[in-house]
Write a structure and sequence with these properties.
The structure holds 2 protein chains of 2 kinds.
Chain A: H1 7-23, H2 26-34, H3 38-52, H4 70-83, H5 90-103, H6 106-117, E1 123-126, E2 142-146, E3 149-157, E4 167-173, E5 184-190, E6 196-203, E7 207-221, E8 225-226, H7 232-244, H8 250-266, E9 268-269, E10 272-273, H9 278-306, H10 314-337, H11 352-367, H12 377-387
Parallel strand pairs in A: 1-4
Antiparallel strand pairs in A: 2-3, 3-7, 4-5, 5-8, 6-7, 9-10
Chain B: H1 7-23, H2 26-33, H3 41-49, H4 68-81, H5 87-99, H6 104-115, E1 121-124, E2 140-144, E3 147-158, E4 165-171, E5 182-188, E6 194-200, E7 206-219, H7 227-262, E8 264-265, E9 268-269, H8 274-301, H9 308-337, H10 347-358, H11 365-377
Helix pairs in contact in B: 1-4, 4-7, 5-6, 5-7, 7-8, 7-9, 7-10, 8-9, 9-10, 9-11
The chains are: A alpha+beta, B alpha+beta.
Chain lengths: 391, 379
């Protein structure tokens, strides 16, 4: 037993660390923290990563990716979090691109992948529907063949950043079979198409990132179909496994934990310094100890991946524990900041603590989504019950 | 990066699994557990023959020269088999302190006797007023000629009921709670001035409260300077108990899942109820957490770069988590077995009692979390 990286991996770690130090400049950090012009700032950062060749972390080399090993990806993610740099917006590079390069044809790869790499195309995800949440296979949005096109009618919901997206990748129903999963296809739709309406959903974090996207006889060329008609469910499932491997968020949580610990050294309460309060210490260590366990859970999965195993139900376990810890940290951060955590201010803060208070409120409120999206934690429990416990 | 036991360690584990399958069914185990001694000397002799008792000792004394990882590998399997024979008090505690003794003659004499199974020893350390504080020692030792005379009261001495030799932690200088001023003494359990009041614990082991009244002992450490040896032995002891607990957890979970697949109510197996499935997923996650943190602790304790603070953080985190998750898993195992979970004939109650005992020995969850807080957040 050992948790040593190889010397090549250690060199890589130094290289990545140096990159983040020089690329994630204080100016860029200030822009990110201001929360303004989210899309513009994200594109600026993603282009910096792409110039370095490190934007498409998961992609194979032949389509413009890094071709990194699981350990290299882990190191990159850890260093990114330690540097405090933001994650990329996943919908293009991490979610639709793997489906395109795995199941799409050459024409589609040439057309879409380069524009994802340069962040010229902004993507959103059309999976959930008003009547199909955790039970995704219940989706009803229909695509009916009409000449060389499909006519798409229906509604998608919880569509993050649909308001600023150029494209949406959708699961649509193209056939009726006994098994509901069989009649589903994977379709790419231009958001400028006639008949698409984006309705904003204002969320409890007093922010607008979620939307409902309504399709009314939207004409979509059949060349935008990925792979084979009625096989879309298989493609989406392959993608979901992809999505969950890095979902534990250990490095991010560790950064939050450090921030809370530092904050507690500065703040005082009715007993003195917050960090000296045994009740606060215990709330902090409740989380820190779970995080230490999660860290080694993730490393054990990583070691298995490195020796060629494919991730199975472990990713469900990492998702459940990872998101529970994130939510506990979000709550404790509000507690550590105090009543400023109720602030709705978004700018012109009187002090840094006001800014952090408002941020912590938003993080907590939007953070409730983590145990719901990507397969709710209850659905993940069903997965483990079936796949691991054989229940 | 590698978080699996080595081939050699797996072979060691495998030999315990095979032995337990052939010789240590729940009924066979009970024969020893229900005897006067509380364990089977025959089984214990087999452990010696198979070389398991040599694992923690250095090769110089005929040992296997095992690391804390080897010890954990053995203890995890002993946990799964619910071994009641006093390996922990004899090897990890008594043997551990003995190996750190400064008296070479005594080491060369006694360690081989532990390895061949002929010597039972115990460590008389904790006192009633000290709870989990190993520095809180009121027992005194005073020089008398070329020996020392020891007086004091030691509580819940593991292995104390059948030990022939005792290592006593006594104060030779300083105030009652000073870390310095502690020394180790070797005392014959049948010496005059030694009163052994034995009793069984709920996990079947036979322990004792031991009263020393001017008992004669031989100094086996540097005078007043035993706390480093004690903390080293305790670090390994905590990991060994955690590894045993992880073994217990895996059996509790497995047994419970299997039981719900056979037990029928409302015309179906109760494993088909989502309310129960999710509870079993939660206990599975509790196990995975504990196993992962155990592995992490083993990896860091055997890494030269690990600072003493980090090691302390890992060990205290591990024991905190084992206390919480062990109770979670044990309680759920009983609840999901329903009325059967309360019966003495089912093994899960016995596994749970051992788990509870582990979480009362040398500290409980609150204590370890307090220790963790001290290391992690002291300003």
């Amino acid at each position: 037993m050992d948790n040593n990286f190889s010397s090549a991996d250690l060199e890589f770690q130094q290289e990545v660390r140096a990159f983040f130090k020089s690329a994630y400049t204080p100016e860029l950090q200030a822009k990110v923290e201001s929360g303004e012009d989210h899309k513009g700032v994200a594109i600026e950062w993603q282009n910096k990563l792409n110039d370095q060749g490190w934007f498409a972390v998961d992609w194979p080399v032949e389509v413009g990716g890094t071709g990194w090993t699981p350990v290299q990806k882990f190191i990159f993610e850890t260093e990114r979090c330690d540097a405090g740099a933001p994650d990329v917006v996943p919908f293009g590079v991490k979610m639709v691109a793997p489906v395109i390069y795995t199941f799409g044809n050459d024409e589609q790869k040439k057309r879409f992948l380069p524009r994802i790499l340069t962040s010229e195309d902004w993507w959103c995800q059309g999976y959930s529907e008003p009547g199909a949440g955790s039970d995704l296979a219940a989706l009803q949005t229909k695509a009916i063949k009409d000449g060389d096109d499909y006519l798409v009618t229906g509604a998608k919901i919880w569509t993050t950043y649909a308001q600023s997206a150029d494209w949406i990748f959708c699961l649509v129903r193209t056939g009726t079979f006994e098994k509901r999963q069989q009649g589903i296809s994977f379709l790419l739709i231009d958001m400028k198409s006639e008949g698409i309406q984006v309705n904003p959903i204002h969320s409890i974090d007093n922010h607008h990132s979620l939307n409902e996207v309504v399709f009314d006889n939207v004409r979509v060329p059949q060349e935008n179909l990925i792979g084979v008609e009625n096989q879309g469910w298989t493609y989406a499932k392959a993608l979901l496994a992809h999505e969950r491997t890095s979902i534990a968020g250990v490095a991010d949580s560790r950064r939050w934990l450090r921030e809370i610990t530092e904050l507690a050294k500065e703040q005082t309460n009715y007993r003195g310094k917050l960090i000296d309060d045994p009740l606060f210490q215990t709330r902090l260590s409740d989380i820190e100890i779970e995080l230490m366990a999660l860290e080694y859970m993730e490393l054990r999965v990583l070691a298995k991946l490195s020796s060629g195993d494919t991730p199975g139900a472990e990713s469900s376990l990492l998702k459940i524990k990872g998101t529970e810890i994130q939510q506990s940290l979000q709550e404790l951060r509000m507690q550590a900041i105090g009543a400023y955590s109720g602030s709705l201010h978004l700018n012109d803060f009187e002090s840094d603590l006001h800014r952090r208070g408002s941020n912590s409120r938003r993080a907590y409120m939007y953070g409730r989504a983590a145990t719901i999206y990507g397969g709710s934690n209850e659905v993940q429990r069903n997965v483990i019950a079936k796949a691991v416990l054989g229940l | 990066m590698n978080f699996e036991y080595s081939e050699e360690q797996n072979a060691l584990k495998e030999s315990i699994v095979r032995w337990a399958q052939d010789n240590y069914s729940f009924e066979q185990r009970r024969v020893g557990a229900d005897s006067d001694n509380g364990f089977s000397q025959d089984h214990y002799n087999t452990f010696a023959e198979l070389g398991w008792l040599s694992v923690p000792f250095s090769e110089e004394y005929g040992g296997y020269g095992g690391s804390v990882v080897d010890i954990a590998a053995v203890m995890e399997e002993f946990g799964k088999a619910l071994v009641v024979e006093p390996v922990f008090p004899n090897l990890i505690l008594f043997g551990g302190l003995l190996e750190r003794s400064t008296n070479e003659t005594i080491k060369a004499d006694l360690i081989p006797q532990i390895i061949d199974g002929s010597l039972m020893g115990a460590v008389a350390m904790y006192e009633p007023q000290a709870r989990f504080d190993v520095s809180n020692i009121a027992t005194t030792a005073n020089e008398a000629g070329d020996a020392y005379v020891i007086s004091g009261h030691k509580s819940v001495v593991l292995g104390g009921a059948h030990a022939k030799k005792l290592i006593v932690v006594a104060r030779t200088s300083g105030a009652q709670t000073d870390e310095d001023g502690l020394s180790l003494f070797l005392v014959d359990a049948d010496a005059s001035g030694v009163e052994v009041n034995a009793y069984p614990l709920m996990d079947g082991q036979r322990v004792a409260d031991i009263h020393f009244n001017n008992a004669t002992g031989q100094l086996i450490s540097d005078l007043g300077n035993a706390s480093l040896a004690i903390s080293q032995v305790l670090e390994i002891a905590h990991v060994a108990l955690a590894a045993e607990a992880v073994g217990l957890m895996s059996v509790l979970n497995q047994t419970t899942v299997e039981y719900t697949k056979t037990r029928k109510q409302f015309g179906v197996t109760i494993s088909s109820f989502q309310a129960l499935q999710h509870r079993m997923v939660d206990t599975f996650m509790s196990y995975e957490q504990a196993k992962s943190l155990l592995v992490g602790t083993l990896v860091e304790l055997t890494d030269d770069r690990t600072t003493p603070e980090r090691a302390s953080k890992m060990v205290n985190a591990l024991r905190t988590l084992v206390a919480k998750n062990g109770k979670h898993i044990g309680d759920e195992a009983i609840q999901l077995h329903g009325g059967m979970g309360l019966t003495d004939e089912m093994n899960i109650g016995h596994y749970h009692k051992r788990m509870m005992m582990i979480n009362l020995i040398f500290g409980n969850g609150d204590f370890f979390q307090h220790q963790f807080n001290q290391v992690a957040y002291a300003s």
